[in-house]
Amino acid sequence: MDKPFSLKGLFIKILLLIPLIYIGFGWYVGLSYGRKAALFGPYKDIPVMMKTHLLGSSLSEISGSNTLVMVVPPGEADKSELDSTYFKLTGYFEVPGTWNFDFTPSDADDSFKETFVLTGSYSRAIAHELKNPNRSLGSLSVRELNHFLKATGRIKDMEKLRPYLFLARMEEKYPWLYSDTVLLSRAMGNIFKDNMLPYDILGLVGIVIFFIGLATRGFWLWGYYLFWVFAYWLGRIGYHDINLAFTNNGYQIILWSFWNGFIVKEGRLFLLIAAGLYLISFVALAVVYVFKHILPRKKRELEDFFKIDKDALKRKELSIETVEFKRVHYDINKKLNQYAKTDKYFLAVSDNKQDVVVEESALNRHLHVLGPTGGGKTSLVILPLSRQAIEKGRGCCFIDFKGDDVFKKYVQRKAKEKGRRFYYFSIDPNEPSAGYNPLSSGDIHSKVDRIMTALELIYHGPAGFYSNVQAMTFVELLKEMVQGKKEINFLSVKDALEDPIFLERTDVRAQDVKGLLAAISWIAGIEVINRDGLDLAKVIKNGDVVFFALKSQVNTRLAEAIGKMLIIDIKSQAVSRQETDPPYFIFIDEFQNLACSHFVDVISKVRSANFCLVLSNQSRGNLSNVSAAFENAIFTNSATKVIFMQEDPFDAKFWSDKTGQTTYQDKSVFQVDNITTDKTGAKLDGLRSAQGNIRTAVKNYISENVFLRLPFSKSVIFSRGKLTVIANHEFLFGKAERDKIISSPFECDKKKVA
After folding, report:
1. Which of 700, 701, 703, 730 is closest to 714 using CA atoms?
2. For 692-706, how does the pLDDT look when each residue is reduced to its tens digit (9 = 90+)?
3. Confidence label for 679 from pLDDT (cuts 50, 70 and 90)
4. 608 partner at 20 to 30 Å CA-CA among 261, 448, 473, 750?
5. pLDDT score of 388
């Protein structure tokens, strides 16, 4: 059984992966672009502006400095202002810049201080004078720096700046993605005074998620929210403060920032209350589960152990009336569509709701369907398999001894929908049929073997002499017909055997071939097998679909004879095929009608020809009546078996034993009356004690009662190398669609019939 594709499972994996991607991207940016700043320059033409006045006042009066020198965007370098002077100097740009952070824990005094160099904004380029690198000339946005590089023709530096342009656009379009405020909306104010509980969007989302999880018992929602809170914090650390991870005491500020920076600002009170509620709810649910499930189960186990009438209980467990079945419903058309573009063929759904499928590479080890008349072999297994084979572009040959009208019309319709050539052969004289001449293929000896076997002309013991005479005569006859380029069919063979000149020439008496002539004469009158039209070798090579309606109710003897000829013909076609050829499916219903030595060869040896046999019959008795060797050959050479309800208890026991054995704990308990002794003698004290033991016992994995009680549409499926399962089947179509198929005309290609 293969686990089917689950959209829910994929969705959960994506949900878990998104926060990890967020963290990974933040740390990738930090490691690639924030760990070490990119330098651009030096450039001799950096436009700067020198100011001596600001807002009408002298800078010396405002800041004590006589002049202010700062870099300006290229487009403003040509402006002229009274209090400003524009010129160019030599310097370089740093992206991103850095800034110093003095870390002082809240519980330490001011004397404890450590300075960390942190990463600046990825969207700003800091300008430095080349002669005095410690002197900052202000900053430009990375877009303005890009315009400067473009205006001065520095193409290589523009390529170097491209990642920072991407990050700048990302921060501009999605400012919340790696924001320092973590969605904190300070503009909306606080709910309580003195900043006790900040009003933040992240906290509100968490409150909503927590109560949704509480109402639906989906506490994984709250866990997923906390996962996102952690990912949001850790991703921002990698994006903005990557250098902290590479300093000796950087981990201290990282941990400090999570609580005193991230949690306090983002609602420590909320997270503490929510985490507390989550813990309380989890404990409450655990207590409820213990009292509702675990303790009652332990109590039942204890009661079962000390139950006195254990023998009666065992009889009840083994009783057929206690067998129960689960019914699993599903949409079979969705299942077939699910596996349509794979090399797997859907069979059923097990009781634990797992799809039971078989790979195409395993189908050339054949599949066997066993069940009573009306048990659903054709409608529940054969039809779905035939539909899948045709839709996957595989050739199919159907040999039907029942004359199922729905079966043939459905197969024809599917072949037509997929643009496949469809041939129909029938022994019913009231139906149009393509011609099939069993003597048209194979060499002379193959033709002789085919006819002698199918017409039961092979005798043993003293009568074997006549079989040999008839076979030799038949060989000589076919040689003459081949040399004379005559048409070979049953009618022409009959005419030749009645020709006294031929008998005299071959030195054979008429009475020696009397049996052969009688057998040939009987079948020579069947018109559909005396004309060509259906070349089985060509059909198999082209991957076409052919349906042989060998209705045994029309002529049982003829149906079995043609069926055996057909099997021997298929065997001869296997010689010219390779294991690498496309699989070709052969569906045979009531295949015990074809029992012969050649059929055993077909099922055991055609795997190398990539023939996939799907066989069905009613019971083991059909096969054992042929011979024990025939039954064993079928069971040994079919890797997959679908077993429906078995009416024979011996058959049920046989299949139950095939499922293997499992172990279980067998408990036996008995009561002992306590006896006390006093001066008057021994007597019962009215008290009892229970004693018992537990032993490990074995039983069949699937009980024989299951096979006896299997309801319609349920089966037991054996797959080689896998555990046996109880499976559930569904109809391909309902009663209305079935009636529609029955009432529809059967369109037979006249060109293929003539």
Report:
1. 730
2. 666 666 777 888 888
3. low
4. 448
5. 95
pLDDT of the residue at 133: 81
Of all residues in the chain, what percent are helix, strand and coil, respectively (each to 5)?
A: 50, 20, 30
What is the share, in percent, of the chain residues with pLDDT greater than 70? 76
Residue pair 637/603 in contact (Cβ under 8 Å)? The answer is yes
Distance (Å, rounded) from C-alpha 220 to C-alpha 81?
Answer: 64
Determine phi and psi for 19, rounding to 5 degrees.
-60, -35
Q: Name the token pair of 419.
A: 């643009």
> What is the spatial distance between Cα 246 and Cα 249, in angstroms, rounded to a whole number?
9
Nearest 10 degrees: Cα torsion 414, 420, 421, 427: -30
Stated length of the chain: 754
Complete DSSP assignment for 634-673: HHHS-SEEEE----SHHHHHHHHHHT-EEEEEEEEEEEEE
> How far apart are alpha carbons 441 and 534 in whole angstroms?
11
Rounded-to-integer distance, Cα 678 and Cα 518, Å: 101
- Contact predicate 590/634, CB 8 Å: no
CB 624, CB 674: distance < 8 Å: no
Q: Is the peptide bond before 42 cis (omega within 30 degrees of 0)?
A: yes
Cα 704 off chain centre by: 32
Could you give phi then psi for residue 352, rounded to 5 degrees? -95, 20
Burial class (CB in 10 A: 0-12, 13-18, 19+), 498: middle
* CA 283 – CA 279 distance, rounded (Å): 6
Give yes or no for a cis peptide into 296 (omega within 30° of 0).
Answer: no
Token representation of residue 608? 């190398």
Q: Which residues contact 65 (CB under 8 A, 6 or more apart)?
A: 59
Mean predicted lDDT score pLDDT of the chain? 79
Please determine, for residue 710, whether its predicted confidence score (pLDDT) is greater than 60.
Answer: yes
pLDDT tens-digit series, residues 327-354: 899 999 999 999 999 999 999 999 989 9
Report the C-alpha gap between 37 and 45 in whole angstroms: 21
Please, where are the H alpha helices in 433-546? 444-454, 464-483, 490-497, 500-505, 514-524, 536-542
Asked if pLDDT for residue 678 goes beyond 80, the answer is no
Q: Where residue 674 falls among pLDDT bands split at 50, 70, 90?
A: low
Contacts of 386 (CB under 8 A, 6+ apart): 396, 398, 410, 411, 414, 585, 587
What span, in angstroms and rounded, lies between the C-alpha atoms of 93 and 37?
Answer: 10
Quick check: 517 and 506 in contact, CB under 8 A? no
Give the C-alpha separation, 237 to 118, whole Å.
11
732 by Cβ neighbours in 10 Å (0-12 / 13-18 / 19+) ranks as middle
Rounded CA-CA distance 300/708 in Å is: 30
> What's the mean pLDDT in 514-524?
80
Cβ 535 vs Cβ 425: under 8 Å = no
Tens-place pLDDT, residues 133-146: 887 888 888 888 89
Measured distance CA(260)–CA(397) in Å, rounded: 77
pLDDT above 90 covers a percentage of the chain that reads: 19
The three-state secondary structure class of 478 is helix
Q: Is the pLDDT of residue 671 over 60?
A: no
Q: Alpha helices, DSSP H only, in 364-463?
A: 377, 383-391, 405-417, 444-454
Q: Could you report the per-residue pLDDT of 571-582, keeping only the tens digit for each?
A: 888 888 888 899
Rounded CA separation 655/641 (Å): 10
User: Tokens 């004359």 label which residue?
Assistant: 403
Q: How far apart are CA 538 and CA 563, in angstroms?
A: 19
* Cα–Cα distance, 657 to 172 (Å, whole number): 72
Asked if 645 contacts 372 with a C-beta cutoff of 8 angstroms, the reply is yes
Binned at pLDDT 50, 70 and 90, residue 197 comes out as: very low
Per-residue pLDDT band for 195 (boundaries 50, 70, 90) equals very low
